[in-house]
């Protein structure tokens, strides 16, 4: 059992518990539920930099990254820095996040917000909408093709963008379908936690042009982004590189400024 299997096993229990506590009707009555969403895929298509900056307090690979900063401060600074969107981890047990983090970010910024979560049930998509997300993540490693299809179609019916994440060719081949907006390649091995952008590069030619290509994890240099752009990537998901610094927002400002030069 790898870390993702463990996280997802816990997630099935968590979602079952939450369904008993907060009915769907309550989620649907949130003031944010009918809000017009903001497409991350479009923002990436129209951007020169393509940064999706993440709020990430801790992780299975790095334990504590940053517990001190406020999610609202980080959100505002990421937006001011010129990030295309923000990824907000909402898993509590492994990443120290929450849906309240998403809500606080939504109250602060207009840029597209990705609910970074281990989605296994439509209920979590209703939560995403109710707490102000614009985009959801689906992880091919933990979903069947049928689940990807039904979850992505349900997300589209809620006007949410869909980012589908793969780790290898097999996951990519089973996942391609029209209800996805963005295809993300995760550079982090779930077995060793090692990161290498080589996997983004090797899968790039197999991602059809209809999808916005996103490279995720382990990106820490301008050179890496310039290199990935050569392979057609338009989006770059960066968490730790910003969050490990005392001021993630300032780090993002400096990074994006150099990228723009
Ligand atoms: O970050 C981890 O350790 C991790 C472990 C197991 C499953 C998912 C994990 N991370 C989620 C992410 O996808 C990253 O937070 C995201 O791509 C940003 O990565 P990074 O820039 O390396 O923080």
TrEMBL record:
Pathway: Amino-acid biosynthesis; L-tryptophan biosynthesis; L-tryptophan from chorismate: step 4/5. This is Indole-3-glycerol phosphate synthase. It comes from Aquimarina mytili. GO terms for biological process: L-tryptophan biosynthetic process. The keyword Amino-acid biosynthesis applies. Belongs to the TrpC family. Residues 4-249 form the Indole-3-glycerol phosphate synthase domain. Signal peptide: none annotated. Keywords: Amino-acid biosynthesis, Aromatic amino acid biosynthesis, Decarboxylase, Lyase, Tryptophan biosynthesis. It is an enzyme of class 4 (lyase). It catalyses: 1-(2-carboxyphenylamino)-1-deoxy-D-ribulose 5-phosphate + H(+) = (1S,2R)-1-C-(indol-3-yl)glycerol 3-phosphate + CO2 + H2O. Gene3D superfamilies: Aldolase class I (3.20.20.70). The gene is trpC. InterPro entries: Aldolase_TIM, Indole-3-glycerol_P_synth, Indole-3-glycerol_P_synth_dom, RibuloseP-bd_barrel. CDD domains: IGPS. Its EC number is 4.1.1.48. HAMAP family: IGPS_B. GO terms for molecular function: indole-3-glycerol-phosphate synthase activity; phosphoribosylanthranilate isomerase activity.
